[in-house]
Amino acid sequence: xxxxxxxxxxxxxxxxxxxxxxxxxxxxxxxxxxxxxxxxxxxxxxxxxxxxxxxxxxxxxxxxxxxxxxxxxxxxxxxxxxxxxxxxxxxxxxxxxxxxxxxxxxxxxxxxxxxxxxxxxxxxxxxxxxxxxxxxxxxxxxxxxxxxxxxxxxxxxxxxxxxxxxxxxxxxxxxxxxxxxxxxxxxxxxxxxxxxxxxxxxxxxxxxxxxxxxxxxxxxxxxxxxxxxxxxxx
Length: 234
Description:
This protein has one domain: Rossmann fold (3-Layer(aba) Sandwich). The chain contains 6 helices and 8 strands, in the order E-H-E-E-E-H-E-H-E-H-E-H-H-E. It has helices at 14-25, 55-69, 92-120, 143-163, 188-192, 203-215, and strands spanning 5-9, 29-34, 41-42, 45-49, 74-77, 123-128, 168-175, 223-226. It has an 8-stranded mixed β-sheet, with helices on both faces. Helix 2 packs parallel to helix 3 and helix 3 (92-120) packs parallel to helix 4 (143-163). The chain is globular.
């Protein structure tokens, strides 16, 4: 056991589940957060059910983490909503849902985790963003993803500078289209063709990148693209 503690949001499936598993395999104690996550309270695995867009969830997560494990070393803001829709077809409810999860979730979770990191003398905050915020694609309408995830990329750089002197790093992973339950198996060959490397990314690709950033103590303010070359061009 490393003794270190990470909070992973959106940890019930897909990327979040894989990220949580990756840290556990390294001997970290992990707190998984999701609206639908199954109850668990094990020596290295605690779950908290709740909506990250609700300030009360972030407060409860921080309190339960500190009560159970006594520290917070890393926060992975993975929970996110992507709704691909023509801009004028978005509903008010979709707009609120996307902003609540993608932006409010980041704000509330990070605000409650940072004081514990400052007390520890260091920490790490990681966001999951998207290359679509940098390279729009007419086949994937994504204005609200760009609004929110692009904002998170900018916030990551700002957070990195604001907290660098206190030993806290902030980085982001920018995935391409990933093999998760969001994409049925029959669509994956087509979706893979949108990447210069000719395939979709896997959960393991993202986990490997996050663990690299965890080890890379001289890296902060970085947006690490795990997108099969999409950021470079087509």
